[in-house]
Amino acid sequence: MVNLKCKKYKGNRVKALQRDNFECKLCGENNYKKLCVHHIDGNGKKKNGKALKVKEQNNNLDNLMTLCFRCHNVLHFSQRPKVWSYKYRECIKCGTDKVMHRGKGLCQKCYSKQHRLDNIERERTRQAKYYKERGKYLLKLNIIKKARS
Ligand SMILES: [Zn+2]
Ligand SMILES: [Zn+2]
Ligand SMILES: [Zn+2]
């Protein structure tokens, strides 16, 4: 069960859990194993990707909030600075960063356009291969016919 002597967050981690009745403040999850304590100012273990020292954290009780892992993830995800893509600054095709990044440096629009083109291209090479094989086959057939006659 809960270690009430836990010194984490200056001992306020346990206090926050107790204050919040060991329940996620957002969804009410009360399975202790699924709970964590969140820093409301967003400066928990990290700040802008850099690790924070304990004394740099605001561990006051009013900056702490009990959340379950699921809600905690959602919350941090929505707080993350919006980056179009970690690799590309904008769409390599149309140069926008207004349309969501889809993959390979392409925005959603360009990606589906590219996907369609890729499909057409694939179909073309498939057909070309088919006709090439067929041509070879007909040629062979002709050679056999000629040999027979
Ligand atoms: Zn929750
Ligand atoms: Zn947090
Ligand atoms: Zn684009």
Provide the succession of SSEs: HEEEEHEEH
Share in β-strands: 5-15%
Overall number of domains: 2
Gross morphology: elongated
Query: Radius of gyration, rounded?
Result: 30 Å
The tally of strands reads 6
Largest sheet entry = 2 strands, antiparallel
Low-confidence stretches: none
Mean pLDDT: 88
Write out the distinct hetero groups bound to the structure: zinc ion
Q: Which range best describes the helical content: under 10%, 10-25%, 25-40%, 40-55%, 55-70% or over 70%? A: 40-55%
* Secondary-structure-derived class: alpha+beta
- Strand order, sheet with most strands: 1-4
Secondary structure layout:
Elements: H1 12-19, E1 35-39, E2 46-47, E3 50-51, E4 64-68, H2 69-79, E5 101-103, E6 106-107, H3 108-148
Antiparallel strand pairs: 1-4, 2-3, 5-6
Bound molecules: zinc ion (3 copies).
One zinc ion is lined by residues 24, 26-27, 29, 67-68, 70-71.
Brief rundown of the structure:
The chain is built from three helices and six strands, in the order H-E-E-E-E-H-E-E-H. By secondary structure, the chain is an alpha+beta fold.
Tell me what you see in this structure.
The model has no long low-confidence stretch (mean pLDDT 88). A hairpin with a 2-residue loop joins strand 2 (46-47) and strand 3. The relative contact order is 0.09. The protein contains 3 helices and 6 strands. The protein is elongated and about 100 Å long. 40% of the residues lie in helices and 13% in strands. It has 2 domains: 8-78, no CATH class; 101-148. The chain has 149 residues and is an alpha+beta fold. The strands form 3 sheets. The protein has a two-stranded antiparallel ribbon. The structure holds zinc ion (3 copies). Residues 91, 93-94, 96, 106-107, 109-110 line the site of one zinc ion.
